[in-house]
Amino acid sequence: MWMKDIKVDLADRSYRVIIGAGVLKETGTSLKEIGFGGRLVVITNPVVRELYGDGLKKSLVAEGFEVDILTVPDGEEYKSLDVAGGLYNELTAIYTERATPILALGGGVIGDLAGFVAATYLRGVPLIQMPTTLLAQVDSSIGGKVAVNHGQLKNKIGAFYQPWLVLSDTSVLKTLPPSEFANGMAEVIKSAVIRDKELFAFVEANIDKIMAQDEAALEEVIFRSAAIKARVVEQDEIDLGLRNILNFGHTVGHAIETVSDFGVGHGQAVAMGMVAAGEIARRKGVFEEEELLRLKGVIKAAGLPVEIPEMDARKLIEAMQHDKKIIGGRVRFVLSRAIGDVFITDEVDLSLVKEVLGG
Ligand SMILES: NC(=O)c1ccc[n+]([C@@H]2O[C@H](COP(=O)([O-])OP(=O)(O)OC[C@H]3O[C@@H](n4cnc5c(N)ncnc54)[C@H](O)[C@@H]3O)[C@@H](O)[C@H]2O)c1
Ligand SMILES: [Zn+2]
């Protein structure tokens, strides 16, 4: 079996990220290696449960574990305090000891929700992230941000709570809808642009293989993207500064999501946001035209949009000003200096942003 391994080095909160095709089948072994036995609780949704949850349970039971599966409905709207509350009730019936781990099996929604529950139930129980979307494998499962939404407050009720282990089985991505795969590709491209020009070149050269989910190419891409996230988190665990670079493309991206009333998906919005950030950087004279063309080329090849849709630029800017990346009234941008190198700045004239956004 192909497998790769990343260590996230955070003193006594350090953990491994195991990546490869077939990782799921080895869950029991991986858990025993870090000292777990006996009881486990899996939190998932009905879609993922049917595809992978029941099989996982069977294999774990065969290895002597006692496994309960709790399901919550599929969808961002269920990443809520209400649903967390329901899970606390169910956990009360199951828990006999605080050492029982919670396995978050699903995409970023499940990871954030189950992670939030693990962080808060009994003041914290062990958390194992088992991401099943590309976005979750390269981004949300690593770094310890767990959260629920609360009314209009997206991801605002949460904690920093690192998992004990991340198990990323790349073969489960085969069942992802293509739009969800593209979503994750936006974060892959983002990771490459902020920190790894070799990863960018690899994606450029192997985009067809990656989109066809060739095992070796996909594993390489997930491994390198996850490693970038791990290194950034190690340097800025609780988001005091550097971690902001992970928001490349997200300043404009979030605004597009908001103004479109979430009609434009996250990955698509981030794709457009990366093009906008690249264009702003180019017009400021810090980013070469040629590099911008490479950026657009890869985004397009990954099935993502490079044109900002017809939207009121004023509304987009307003949305940016309401976003959390605001310091002292100025919008904070992550701009590219080259592929593999970005910087954070609040020195971007809103008139330039408006121009780039087409109005
Ligand atoms: N904590 C963080 O650092 C962080 C970072 C980025 C995003 N997020 C959060 O992640 C969430 C988005 O995550 P997402 O993009 O994974 O979406 P998601 O969790 O909603 O999953 C997308 C869809 O794919 C389905 N699915 C999951 N795995 C599947 C599989 N293997 N085969 C078939 N279908 C599968 C899900 O049921 C769902 O319908 C958002 O809530 C966002 O706020 C968190
Ligand atoms: Zn994102």
What is this entry, summarized?
The chain is of the alpha/beta class and 359 residues long. 47% of the residues lie in helices and 19% in strands.
Which keywords apply here?
2 domains; binds nicotinamide-adenine-dinucleotide; Rossmann fold; binds zinc ion; 359 residues; 13 strands; 13 helices
Give a written overview of the molecule:
The protein is α/β, with parallel strands linked by helices. It folds into two domains: 4-176, 3-Layer(aba) Sandwich (Rossmann fold); 180-356, Dehydroquinate synthase-like - alpha domain (Dehydroquinate synthase-like, alpha domain). It has helices spanning 27-33, 46-62, 81-94, 108-120, 134-140, 178-195, 197-211, 215-235, 250-259, 266-283, 289-301, 313-322, 350-356, and strands at 4-8, 15-20, 39-44, 66-71, 102-106, 127-131, 145-150, 153-160, 165-169, 326-327, 330-331, 333-338, 341-345. It has a seven-stranded mixed β-sheet, sandwiched between helices. The chain has a two-stranded antiparallel sheet with strand order 7-8. Strand 5, helix 4 and strand 6 (127-131) form a beta-alpha-beta unit. The chain is globular and about 60 Å long. Zinc ion (ZN) binds at residues 187, 250, 266, 270.
Write the layout of secondary structure elements.
Layout: E1 4-8, E2 15-20, H1 27-33, E3 39-44, H2 46-62, E4 66-71, H3 81-94, E5 102-106, H4 108-120, E6 127-131, H5 134-140, E7 145-150, E8 153-160, E9 165-169, H6 178-195, H7 197-211, H8 215-235, H9 250-259, H10 266-283, H11 289-301, H12 313-322, E10 326-327, E11 330-331, E12 333-338, E13 341-345, H13 350-356
Parallel strand pairs: 2-9, 3-4, 3-5, 5-6, 6-9
Antiparallel strand pairs: 1-2, 7-8, 10-11, 12-13
Helix pairs in contact: 5-6, 5-8, 6-7, 6-8, 6-10, 7-8, 7-11, 9-10, 9-12, 10-11
The chain binds nicotinamide-adenine-dinucleotide and zinc ion (ZN).
